[in-house]
Design brief:
three-stranded antiparallel sheet; mainly alpha; about 50% helix; rod-shaped
Length: about 280
C-alpha cells in the first residue's frame, strides 16, 4: 500500500487518523474507532490500521467497484455483496474479516510450530556436535596413548640391541689379552738384555745361566690370537599393513542422511498449493 502523509481523525479532528473504515471510507483515531464499532449498524465494519494509511488506495471488486465483504471458500477468493448474489449464491461464504483472522491464526500457528521444531533441532544438533567433539578428543587420546605404548616398547627393544654389556665384556677380554701379550713382550725384552749382559761370562757359567733361562722361556705360553669378535645387524623394514596391525580400527561415520535432508530442504521450492473443489459454479466454471 502506498504511503501518504499522516492524517487526522475525520470524526473528532483531534487524534491521528490511524484506522481506515472500509465501509464508511473514513479515517478514525483509536477512540473513535471503538465508539464506531459499538454502534449496532457498524459493528461488523472492517478497518485497515497504520500510521500512513492512504484512503485513496482501496481494495475493491474489479467488476463492481464494491468493497469485499465475504470470502468464498469454494472459489477461494474474496467477493463483494453483488458478486455473492450473482455468481456465488450457492457457494459456502464466510465473513472476510473472520476468514482473514482465521487464516492469520493458522499461519502464525504454523510459523510458531516451525520455530519450535527448528529450536528443538538446533538444540539437538548443538548437543550432538558437542558429543561428537568429545568423541574425537577421546579417540585422539586413545590413539596417542596406543602410539606411546608402542613407542615405549620400541625404545626398550632398541635399548636392548644397543646396550653395552656384551660390548664391554668383549672389550675387557680383549684388553686382558693385550695386557698378557705386552707382559710377554716386556719379559722377553728383559731376557734379551740379560743375555747381552752375560756375554763376558765364562762359558761354563754362561751355560748354566742359559739353561735356567731356557726353562723360564719355555714356561711362557704365547697364546694365539683368538678369532675376531664381530657384531652385525640385519635391519627389517615392516610394511604399512604390519604397522596397521599394531593398532586398532577407527570408524568414522558422517551423518549423510541428515546432510542430504538439509540440502534437500534448502533446495526445495514449494509448488503452488493445489486446490480441492467441492462444487462447480455454473456461472464462472
Amino acid at each position: 500500500m502506498a504511503q501518504a502523509a499522516a492524517s487526522i481523525c475525520e470524526i473528532c479532528t483531534a487524534g491521528p487518523g490511524e484506522h481506515y473504515c472500509q465501509q464508511c471510507d473514513q479515517l478514525f483515531c483509536g477512540s473513535c474507532k471503538s465508539s464506531h464499532l459499538r454502534t449496532k449498524s457498524c459493528k461488523n465494519h472492517t478497518f485497515l490500521s497504520g500510521p500512513n494509511i492512504n484512503k485513496e488506495e482501496k481494495l475493491l471488486c474489479t467488476e463492481h467497484e464494491e468493497i469485499y465483504f465475504f470470502f468464498c471458500q469454494d472459489c477461494d477468493s474474496p467477493v463483494c455483496t453483488i458478486c455473492s448474489v450473482e455468481k456465488h449464491s450457492r457457494h459456502l461464504m464466510t465473513d472476510l474479516t473472520k476468514s482473514t483472522d482465521k487464516l492469520r491464526f493458522e499461519v502464525v500457528k504454523k510459523i510458531k510450530a516451525k520455530v519450535t521444531t527448528s529450536k528443538v533441532n538446533l538444540s539437538k544438533i548443538e548437543k550432538e556436535t558437542t558429543t561428537y567433539c568429545d568423541e574425537v578428543k577421546a579417540v585422539i587420546k586413545t590413539i596417542t596413548e596406543e602410539g606411546n605404548y608402542w613407542k615405549n616398547l620400541i625404545d626398550k627393544k632398541v635399548g636392548s640391541f644397543v646396550r653395552h654389556d656384551e660390548e664391554q665384556k668383549t672389550l675387557q677380554n680383549i684388553t686382558a689379552l693385550i695386557k698378557v701379550y705386552r707382559g710377554d713382550i716386556e719379559t722377553c725384552q728383559q731376557w734379551e738384555k740379560k743375555i747381552k749382559e752375560m756375554e763376558t761370562m765364562a762359558d761354563v757359567l754362561l751355560l748354566q745361566k742359559l739353561k735356567k733361562l731356557k726353562v723360564d722361556v719355555d714356561n711362557i705360553d704365547v697364546k694365539p690370537v683368538p678369532e675376531r669378535s664381530y657384531v652385525s645387524y640385519r635391519n627389517r623394514k615392516p610394511s604399512g599393513t604390519e604397522i596397521d596391525s599394531l593398532f586398532g580400527e577407527m570408524q568414522f561415520k558422517e551423518g549423510k542422511a541428515l546432510m542430504e535432508k538439509t540440502e534437500n530442504q534448502q533446495n526445495f521450492r514449494p509448488k503452488e498449493s493445489q486446490k480441492k473443489y467441492k462444487y462447480a459454479c455454473d456461472v464462472c466454471g
